[in-house]
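Quick entry, no commentary yet.
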Amino acid sequence: MSKSIKIYISVLVLIFILILISDYNQPKPIDWRPTYSVNDKIPFGLYVFDKEIGGILKNQKVERISDVTPYEFLDSKYDEDSLVETYTVKGTFINISPINNIDDQSMKEIMYFVSHGNNAFLSMSNFPKPLMDSLKIEYKSNFKSADKGFVWMANKNLNRKAYKATGEIADYFSKIDTLNTTVLGYEGDPKNDKEVNFIKVPYKNGNFFLHMHPVAFTNYNLLKKDRSQYTENILSYIPKGDIFWYTKMKTDENVSSSPLRYIMSQPALKWAWLLFLIGMAIFMVFNAKRKQRIVPIISPLPNLTIDFTKTIGNLYYQEGDHTNIIDKKIIYFLERIRTEYLIDTTKLDDVFVTKLHHKTGKDEKDIQELVFLINEHRNSYHGSIEEDLIRINNAIEKILH
């Protein structure tokens, strides 16, 4: 790893540490999203209500519905036997949501469930159209100022204290069937500007309890002083019996399917991820500039001297001029001795043999044999010329290699 790359990495690590230090003492930002999820501890989640519902609705079995739609759940509880044709369960269907999260088919099934002597409690800011048409109700939105943001119960036998509302007050029932509808709660100004936000509407053999201030069930409301009393008063209207609570929110459709959704949802992890990407981009840019280009392979120039020597040698050998080859071998050998070992080669005698032995470290007998062969050749003793060439060449090879 080069020195420059180490410097870049060190700078990035330092920046990352500084970001962590600066964020360490920063208060965690509050998540104000209205998720209405039983798993969320944020202000507008239903975690506290989920834990406390058993204490509020005492001696009532609560079954949470989260994996299927209301239609799928209730339809599976219906006995279609001609002698029965009714639901195998009895109780109250509950739904708490900031928006309408019930599809029309499920709403029709809920109405059918209520018509068989059951009940439904719906706390939402708007309701499905099939329900509104059947119950002859309408609603409007009108934001209230802070001095008119109160909610309270209509029943004189309950605590009619006006509670400061959590969040904004806007939705209310603008039209109801006054002959069949019972008003259970109000919102706005208790003195002169109140509007209906909680009603009870009979439907065949059962009843609908419709409430338009679902924020009353959130963590923020239940943990604020005495506002939980208002929530308990609302739930006190739910008849005794089993509770079927639909907890699935439509917000699941807006959840990103990206594998990085959790990292991007957390500010610290998000900045760490972005810093990593920026660092990698910087590294790639600088590294690409300093990257040595591929060096092409260049074949070495051929040694023409060796080729020429081989050619001349082959020529002499093919011509059968062995004597000439021997003479050139001897000349080459003596030139090497003079050049490399600085030994006089004028007279090849015992003195020459001794000096060459000491300087080369070769066997003295091999040197004597070579000197003998050279002198013998010079004295024009000829046996088999080709044989002499081989003997002299081998003797020279022993000394020079």
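second:
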Amino acid sequence: MTGSFTGWTLDALGRDLRSGAATATGLLGRALASIDPSLNAFATVDAEGAAAAARVLDEELAAGRDRGPLHGVPVGVKDVIDVAGLPTGMGSAHFDGHVADGDAACVTRLREAGAVIVGKTTTHEFAYGASGDTAVNGPSRNPHDPSRISGGSSGGSAVAVAAGMVPLALGTDTGGSVRIPAALCGVAGFKPAYDAVPTGGVFPLSVSFDHVGVLAATAADCRTAYRALTRRPHDVPVPPGDLRVARIEGVPVADEVADAVRRLVPDAPTEHVDLRALRRVFAAIQDSEAYDVHAERVAVAPELYQRVTLDRLRRAERVPGWRYVRACRERARLAEEAAELLRRYDVLALPTVPITAPEIGQGECELGPVQPALLSMTCAWNVLGLPALSVPAGTAGGLPVGLQLVTAAGREDRLFAFAERIAP
């Protein structure tokens, strides 16, 4: 975990660029030299295209054109997000050889902000899994222990940031796919409110829950990227005084994870949220919508899927229509309950993941099956479409733990303000 960008923030990189101590071309060189193939963070590296973009950005800065805090910054992009001229492989043999015709809307915004696209990061096949260990190009590996999962489905993006290969990466988050790998790899990951960042050009998993998110070393860097992606240059003022914070319970959590999180919010009152009910709603809607995306591929070429993915899709095929309809109705009721809670509190705090990173291929953990455990504390906020941020919360048994912070849409700056207050 000693890549060229380990310990660097976007602010520090920006100062070096603007002082002349660094160049976009030089930063790209550092990124390319830091890519460790053994961790499998990148599915595709575009050294030539990135070099051409970096040269232009250096020329612009020299001529006095500054695109903002992402100008010249190397960025990884998850391999379910289109980047013009690069493969979008989805981690699947179904898309072997597929090359994107154009940029996804979020990539267009990154380029407008001056980011340099280094390449495409490894994804769990079709983003349909929380472990990051199922893809045609193999698992992305946790930099803290390569025998363990990165988390998913944006595992490659988290690994690339955690190992210092790039200072920033894009991911997608349908049930926790930015926040889970951020927590397990020890970086920050932010899922904005639903539809805050456009999803055009992003391969869908579940259109009701799909979000574009960002991963970086710190919450402040996530905020910087979020502003660029939403074209919001300024903060919304945070009210003076203490922010009202509640600690959320609702599903089992490993003791050492709970202890690490409790140390960061020791005085917060405890509230119960029905995370199990939200998980049931999530499963019914996500599985129905995922099967809608894949039905024809399952029928025509099932052998091209990884076995785990195909098994999930076969189960999704059997979700009855009434369960989907009921879940949509239940979702509305649970959203009103959450809104009432967020009228009383500014920020909700809970573990991002109730366990630390299991070993690759491990099916069971102390809380039961691994996949449901990974999603148990994150998918609720996709169902509700609320902004959610995972920040490092120390370690347990030598492995990273994440603290998840949730707020109401429009209060994102309160979320980042609180994250800054508790940062080590």
